[in-house]
Design goal:
The chain has four helices and eight strands, in the order H-H-E-E-E-E-H-E-E-H-E-E. The protein is α+β, with helices and mostly antiparallel strands. A hairpin with a 5-residue loop joins strand 1 and strand 2.
Length: 157
């Protein structure tokens, strides 16, 4: 797994597309999928934060997704779709790690554009794979998705 900074170095164009999607509304907006104790999926909206080229999320202490990440760590993050017909899509997957450093917590909280409350857990999202989807021939019978993928330890497709 790699940090957002390392992802940006590995595939600058894809990282730029992803950053544009996640932060298209100013504040980061995405859906986070985690794995419940019984193996089922859990999906919730949240506000990712990019600070010093690292991607973080704050999760409230009572949230089930906090316990999912502490137990398993695997996640998938899907950026909110843009408010236009020919939607673009961006997806990340990897493992989340709890960050316990109080100075880091305060620095990331100061960088967020959403409300963060004392006691929220800070996780860094490490990246194993990413995918951007755009569309060709929008509005025609020949419409087709165009994917740009990156998987750790491989060259971009």
């Amino acid at each position: 797994m790699i940090t957002w900074k390392e992802f940006t170095e590995a595939d600058p164009e894809l990282a730029s597309l992803g950053k544009r999607q996640i932060f298209q509304f100013g504040v980061g907006l995405a859906f986070l999928a985690t794995i419940r104790r019984d193996g089922g999926p859990r999906v919730h909206p949240l506000c990712p934060v990019l600070k010093d080229d690292h991607l973080y999320v704050f999760i409230s202490p009572e949230s089930p997704k906090k316990w999912d990440l502490l137990r398993d760590g695997r996640y998938a993050l899907q950026a909110f779709p843009p408010p236009k017909e020919e939607s673009e899509e961006f997806y990340l997957a990897g493992k989340a790690a709890l960050m316990k450093d109080a100075d880091l917590w305060r620095a990331v909280a100061a960088a967020t554009k959403s409300v963060v409350k004392e006691g929220e857990a800070l996780f860094e999202l490490y990246i194993e794979r990413a995918m951007y989807t755009g569309w060709e021939n929008w509005g025609t019978p020949e419409i087709r998705p165009v994917h740009r993928k990156w998987i750790e330890s491989r060259q971009p497709d």
